[in-house]
Amino acid sequence: MSELDLNAPITEWELDEWTSDARAELTAALIDSGIAHKWEETVLLAGSAVENEVEELLDEIENNNEISDDNDDDDDVGDDSNDAADSKVLGQLSAVAQRISRNPSDMNSIRALERLLEEIDGARSKIWQTKLKNRLLVARNLMNQRQWILPAGCLQFCVLMSETQTVLAELEIWHSRPFTPTRRLSLGNLVLPTDHSPGLGGVLLGGVVAAHFGEIDEDLVPDLHRLTAQIERGERVVQPRLRHRLQVDRHGLMKSLHHLVGDQDKLQFKFDASGSALAQVLGAIYAIERLDDPSRKSLATVINRSMRWRGPLDASFISYLAGSSATSISALADPRAWALEILGFPEGTIKPSKRQVQERYRSVLRSVHPDHGGAIATAGKSIEDLGEARRVLLRS
């Protein structure tokens, strides 16, 4: 094997997160392949002309070493699904709390509250390991003592719910430091509810993409679209891609954490990015690879729409992603239940007829219209919500 020509173009790979055994295995593979190279502590140097060959060896060794990690990760699959289920319950709790705060004697909402609080029993995901858990335990205590029937008990629950922001979706991305030559990427905890697409998880992924897409080099945009299309079709993505290698191991990587939170019945993005804009967008795109086939296809569309957004990440952005004028937590968590509630259908109604929907729409529209005694300050929003609720029920 010839010596490395340091006067020719050189590519560096920072492998400080690799074990010494893995680096020794790589050295042996490089020698067997006749690839000239040099080590500078944990940095591998090789000619840029053989970069693809080196990357293939890196992939092979990493995949072999990740088998045991994958077995460990299998134990976490149940936790991820529990996280998503618990996020959905929290979103519904916030919506019920808002209805009760407006009308403490609303028995439909009170019964819905009782059912939701019962779902908390046995919950074991990370979401419940916060101070919110104590608040919910107090609310359950009110229910157990039948105090939740009283207006004071209902209002106490609403106060408990409003004292903290509820995490509705979470995306954790691990990545190399921005200045590292070899850029690596790994996904951490994912809480991405996707029921009733785009769902709260889809809104978060879309927000992450829209927030960082403007900082990405225009030359990389076509390949980002190709990557999204590949994942949408369920194809295998050869690594590295777009200057980043997706891996399981997180040793030596930095973390970025993004949340979609509920504040009362409004949605708010919380971004904490410590890496490059490209790493954040890639993390959001690779996250949809973890979803089932229908959700993956649906959220690929959301990702593409987010790439085209130019503007603030406010209610108009959420409406743009969801294709709906209703942007509250309850409307996104379960649009059909929200629509039935807005139009005043009794509890237990599953699928009203087209005629029933139109009748309820006209009846409630009259009651909120200023000409019939409705509040002028809220009439516009109420009429808009009624129109959206009618559209949801007629479409489903």
What report would you give on this structure?
The chain has 396 residues and is α+β, with helices and mostly antiparallel strands. It has four domains: 10-74; 77-164, no CATH class; 168-329, no CATH class; 337-395, Helix Hairpins (Orthogonal Bundle). The chain contains 15 helices and eight strands. The protein has helices at 20-32, 51-74, 77-102, 107-119, 131-144, 151-162, 199-213, 221-232, 277-287, 293-307, 315-322, 329-333, 335-342, 354-368, 376-395; strands at 10-14, 37-40, 43-47, 166-175, 183-191, 244-246, 254-263, 266-272. The protein has a five-stranded mixed β-sheet. A hairpin with a 2-residue loop joins strand 7 (254-263) and strand 8. Helix 3 (77-102) packs antiparallel against helix 4 and helix 3 packs across helix 6. It is elongated. It starts with 9 loop residues before the first strand and ends with a helix. Residues 66-78, 124-135 and 140-156 have low confidence and may be disordered.
Question: In the residues, how many domains can be counted?
Answer: 4
Unreliable runs: 66-78, 124-135, 140-156
* Average pLDDT rating: 77
N to C succession of SSEs = EHEEHHHHHEEHHEEEHHHHHHH
Gyration radius over CA: 26 Å
Helix share, percent? 40-55%
**Oligomeric state of the chains in view:** single chain
Structural class: alpha+beta
Distance between the termini: 67 Å
Please state roughly what percent of the residues sit in beta strands, choosing from under 5%, 5-15%, 15-25%, 25-35%, 35-45% or over 45%: 5-15%
Strand order of the largest sheet: 6-5-4-7-8
Largest sheet entry? 5 strands, mixed
Q: Helix tally? A: 15
Give the tally of β-strands. Answer: 8
Shape: elongated
